[in-house]
Every structure is written in C-alpha cells, then in structure tokens.
Amino acid sequence: MRVIAAMSGGVDSAVAAARAVEAGHDVTGIHLALSRNPASYRSGARGCCTIEDSNDARRAADIIGIPFYVWDLSERFHEDVVEDFKAEYAAGRTPNPCLRCNEKIKFEAVLDRALALGFDAVVTGHYAEVRPAADGDGVELHRAQDGAKDQSYVLGVLTQDQLRHALFPLADTPKPLVREEAARRGLLVADKPDSHDICFVADGDSAGWLREKMPDIVGTAPGAIVDESGAVVGSHEGTLGMTIGQRRGLRLGVPAADGKPRFVLDIEPVSGVVTVGPREHLAVDRITGIKPRWCGTVPTRLEGAGVTVQLRAHGDEHRAVVVVGGDGSEVAIELLDPAYGIAPGQAAVIYDGTRVVGSATIAATGREQGAR
Amino acid sequence: MNRAPRTVYLDHAATTSMVPAAVDAMSAHLHEVGNASSLHASGRRARRVVEEARESIGAALGARPGEVVFTSGGTEADNLALKGAYWSRRAADPRRVRILSTGIEHHAILDPLEWLERRERAVVELLPVERDGRLSLTALRTALETHADEIALISVMWANNEVGTVQPIAEVVALAAEHGVPVHTDAVQAVGAVPVDFAGVGVDALSLTGHKLGGPYGVGALIARRELELTALLHGGGQERDVRSGTVDVPAIAGFAAAVELAVKEQSTYAARVGTLRDELIRGVLEVVPDAVLNGARPGPERLPGNAHFSFPGCEGDSLLMLLDAQGIECSTGSACSAGVPQPSHVLLAMGRSEAEARSSLRFSLGHGSTSDDVAALLAALGPCVERARAAGSR
Asked: Which domain holds residue B287?
C-alpha cells in the first residue's frame, strides 16, 4: 500500500513508520504543522509541535529512508481542536482535545487529503490494534496488550471508515521494546521523553492558557465554595482550572463536621458556585452520553461480563450496561462499579472485552439516588 | 518502494550544480596551505588567488577590484549592504532613517529591514509592485519627492527569485540620483541570467552569491562603491576592506570567481538556450493545464530566462510538489518556509494575488544542464498530478 506516516518527532511514530516500510509499504512521512507560528505553542523538550519536533521527525524520515514533508494543518487544527477546546471550557465542560484531534485532524483532514492524493492509509504510532472483524466484515479496534500504554481510549472516536484506513504498527509492543528498537534502527529519538498533556498548552497550565486566550471566559470570577447543605465554607479565585474530584488547594475555612476530607462535587461555572462534600458523594453510576461515534455496527444494548466503560485516558475500566437511545443520538450508561470525579465534556469509551465499540461525550452524570 | 528512476531537476533558482570550471578551480586550492593574510610565500600565494578572483569578478561585472567585498553569500551581502549603509548614512545625518524597498524582496532583505525597524528606529517603506511584479516607479518617485532628505537607502532586487520579474534598476538609479540617495540591489538571481553591469547601471551596491551561478555554496560578494560608507557587521581581522572580517576562504573564492567569469561570458547564449526551453515549458504547461496562470512578467527581457511560475487553480502547491517529487520531478512552491511551516508567498500577495492563489502556485526554474527531456518529463507527469492535487485541494 501507499501510506502516509504521521510523524510527530517522537519515538513511537518514528518506529511505526519504520515498521510500515519493513512491512513492504510505500511510505511517505509527514509532520503536521499545527500552528503557523510554532513558537506560539509549546516549547521545550516535552511536547510536540515545536520546530525541534519537526526537525526530529525529518531526521527520523532520513534515517528510515522515506520522503518527508510538512503539511500545514494549522487552520483546521485551530478551528476543530483549539476553538472547540475553548468553547467547551467556556460552556463549563472539560474536553479531551487529543480525541478531537484524532477524530478531526489525523483521521479526517490528513486521511482525506492522503486518500485524495492517492494514498491508501495513514500510519500513526498509537498503541492499539486494528484487526479484521470477528464476523469477517470490516475491522475492529482493540486495546493494546500493554495496558500502561494502551491508547485505544483516544482512538475511540474513529468510525469504521476511518479505521479501515488506519495502521497502528506498534499495536501492542511494550514501550521499552519500542525504544530499544528505535535505538537499534539508529533513530536519534530513541530516548526522547514522552509527550504529555495538551500539545498546544505550552506549560501544561490549561487554566492559565484559557485565561490568557479568553480573559472573559466564564469561571474567572471569584466565588463561593458551599457544602451540600448550601452553607458557605470557603471561597475560590475562579472555577476555571478546578476539577470535579479535586481535594487539594481548596483552603476551606470551615472544617467538616466529621473532620473528613472534602472534595469538589460540583462546579457551576456560570454562577461560580462550587460544591464540596465527602468522597462517597463523588461517586457516579449514571452517565448520559451524547454525540456517540461507533467503530462498527451501532449497538442497541450492551451488557455482560466484558462490557466496560473508560472515562479518561489511562483511567479505570468500569463494568457497565450501555443502552443506546431510540434514535441513536444518546447513550445511557449504568456503571456497575461507581466512578469518581467525572466531569461533563469528558469522553466515555465503550468496550466489549478488548474491543472498542464506540464512544460518547459525557453530558450529565448522576447517582442512582438522583441526577447531579 | 517504486521511486522514479530519474531525477528531473527544475529548481535551479534554489541552487544549481557547480560548473566543472568552478570545481576545478576550487579543488586546485583545497590541498594548498596559506592564509591570505600571512606575509610569507604561502600566504602571498593564497592572497594572489584571492586578488585575482577579485579582479576577475570586478572585470566580469563592471566593477573595480577594490569594490568587491567577499562574504559568506547573498544573505550576508544583503545584511552588510542594508545595515552597513543605514548606520553610516544615519550617522552622517540623523534625519536619514527611511529605507525604501519593495514587498517582493527576498527574506534576506525583508528580515534585516524588519530588524532595523524594530531595533534601529528605521522607517521602512515597501513600495508597491504591479500585477506582474514590476516595481511601481510612480510610487518610488512619490516616496523620493516626499521624504528625500530622510532616505538612507533604496534597495530593489535586480530580478525576483519566485516569479522571475526583472526590475527597472536603471530607472530606479536615475530617480534616486536626482535626490542623491544610494541604491542597493540584490542581484543574486540576475548574474549570469541577464546582463549585469555594476558601473553601467550605476548602483552603489550589489549582492551576488556563488551557488546560484555554478559556483560553490558559502561564498558571495557585496560589490560596493568606495564612496558608499559601510559600517562593519563582523569585527575581527578586518580582512575585507575593514568592513568584513574573517579569514577568507581561498578555494571557495577561486571557484566562485571561475563560475562568475564563465556565467557572465556565456550569459547571452545561456539566456537564449534556457529561454527557449522555458518558453517550451510554459507552452506545454498551458496546454496540459489550460486554466493554469503564468505569474510574473511576459517572457522577454523583463523575465529571467530560466523562470516559469504558475498558479494552478484549485490545487495546493504543497500537494502538487509532493506528487511531482514522487515522480522524480523536483520543483518549488517558491515560498519561504517559516520555521518549517509553509507560508503563502509574500511575493504573490504583494502582487495582488489572494492567499488561495498564492498557495496554489509552483515554480519551475531551469538552468545550465536543463534539457528538452526535462521539460517533456514534467509535461508528461503534470496532468495527472494536477488532477490529483485538485481532488485533494477541494477537501
């Protein structure tokens, strides 16, 4: 096949590209320019999107022996990922821009362009496995064996059509072996640190970034911290950057009656009211998901031993019963093991065993006793 | 992988291969010891090579040997001309803070100008160009008449690197002379391609570089009239007329001089041969892609003989470049990369094109060694590539 290898400048995508060459594909490496002015985004060794990363990707392509180009996706990235990130936060939700980027950039903008230019697939360094569907029709997305590196969560937004044109050559190779292989192949990025956090937020401080980009965003005004009875127990400098489940840094003036630690149970970004309470009350076992995306056939009801839901990257698997609403636009998730600290905007990715069934954006959460 | 068997190099404006005469001249000196500043016999031999090179470049370009200042290339020559002349002219009269230039200059001009503006209180006026890329002389006249006493320098490129338009340098010089303002020209693309006579045209300073005309990389020159005072950028041994320090690169200078001499000697036959090929290329491209638009001046004395530059409506130049590259055909989007990120060409934007038009463009540049087969190979591959790029561009 003729394939495009998306090369971030990191070790994973470099090894993935090398493996694609070895598998006999005709590989062209590309680096995505996600900002017209890379310096305006992340700088430093940890992230992606820097000039150094672009150069690292170029050198990896040299060593692998494939052509290399920079594709300017800055406009699409800005509109589909950065603006969406801001809008979600402005609406008081907590989005995951990495999922959005996979959905809209790597496997939509890049894939579409690649297909139009005569390529057959896009190769990335994600840790996940695409395999032929058990029923022989199409493909399935599965977790990587190495649970610590498994990235199927951030790929849970991909549709059957996108997955058919996706190659993840790392599949389930443990990360240390990927680094060893990179060193063996002479790739200079073999010991480059992993990237973390959100690539376009330079120092990892999302709240600070949002304040700078959107001085008028909701959540920057000081407000009250109340307990579940409504009594004021403290104050905060703005809800932006506070998360449900947070315990540290609340500086509550009034101690809890039982002396137990209190956690953020609820954040109302518009009024600025933050509610705190005991950890038990963080527990969530009802989730309403919207904007579902399915990797294959749209299910109506999923239950049983292998059915689980993951609510954040590298988060726990929760056994669950999933019911898809009548017209397919809403997903009701009942968690058999409660989850703690779940915020609207996060993605719920639904699994059957190791297979990714699909995903939905969390719109509301609740407990059996009543919705929150 | 099924890579194309043959490379068709259509990017001579980016750099062109060294001519054998330059390779010979350069390699002849690579084994020799001798610092041109040393006083002993080896030093004198090295110095002799440098001075002979200076004389031959001067002779080829209508300059006195003492006017040739060797530099590390075009960028350094441009920086020395702009900053060096600005500082000296401003020191002589503090009112002189204005620099006139054009919006289609190379970044080696635009970026130093921006730096002077930001750091040295310069007031830079980028004069408009016509749709074909020719400087508006009316605008220049107005600018001169409005602010003559405040103008430190005018810098107008001899010929544009992207669209190949040759500028009316003689007219620029004539207008500037009315007000006693010095003129610098970046002639990096012009030397060897069109007739260039330093004294004849009357500019005060002129930049050229080796690797665009069959010489080595990393060597170039600023030809500057003695009367033009230049403040040094590089301080040290004062090797080059005290305005440029650094041990001179004897072998590179020898290769550079051989290339300049040959390029100037063969300029008219080169221009005729390459111009014919270029016309063949333009005709062919417009046949294969009827809605392609040729940018720049009409083929003739106002256009570099090796330059063909097109917009392909509906295409991303980047996509087209990649598809052609996969067929072994090497060309350029013509635009500079800012930090590796493709930017729409500032030249086309200055020529009044939209961002989409600018992004849809591609430059094919011919040079010595280009053949009819190269043109034929491009024409054979271009149609399907444009079709593909269009499909991708509409997404």
From this structure: 8-18+267-393
* pLDDT tens digit sequence for B251-267: 999 999 999 999 999 99
Are B172 and B28 within one domain? yes
B170 in a structural domain: yes
Subunit contact B395:A116, Cβ cutoff 8 A: yes
A328, A292 contact by CB (below 8 A): yes
Contact B342 A70 (CB under 8 A): yes
How far is A124 from A114, CA to CA, in rounded Å? 13
Annotated catalytic residue A48: no
B331 as an active site residue: the answer is: no
Q: What does pTM read for this prediction?
A: 0.89
- Is residue A58 within a helix (H) or strand (E), and if so which, with residue range? helix A51-64
| Residues B272 and B282 reside in one and the same domain | yes
Quickly state the pLDDT bin for A37 (edges 50, 70, 90).
low
Q: Give B384→chain A minimum CA distance, Å.
A: 10
ipTM of the complex: 0.88
| Statement to judge: residues B152 and B295 lie in one domain | no
| B42 and B145 share one domain | yes
Residue ranges in chain B assigned as alpha helix (H): 20-30, 41-61, 74-79, 85-92, 107-119, 137-147, 169-179, 198-201, 250-265, 267-288, 317-326, 346-350, 355-359, 372-393
Chain B partners of A67 at a C-beta cutoff of 8 Å?
Answer: 322, 325-326
Q: Residues B25-43: pLDDT tens digits? A: 999 999 999 999 999 999 9
Nearest residue in chain B measured CA to CA from A20: B1
Residue range B269-302, pLDDT digits in tens: 999 999 999 999 999 999 999 999 999 999 999 9
Mean pLDDT throughout A87-92?
Answer: 83
Domains detected in chain A: 2-191 (3.40.50.620), 218-277 (2.30.30.280), 281-371 (2.40.30.10)
**One of A48, A49, A98, A101 is an active-site residue; which one?**
A101
Mutate to test the interface with A, among B325, B331, B341, B343 (most CBs of A within 10 A): B341
- Measured at the alpha carbon of residue B207, what is the angle toward residues B203 and B211, in degrees to the nearest 5? 145
Scanning every residue of chain B, which has its alpha carbon at the shortest distance from the alpha carbon of A108? Answer: B395
Tell me B112's DSSP state.
H
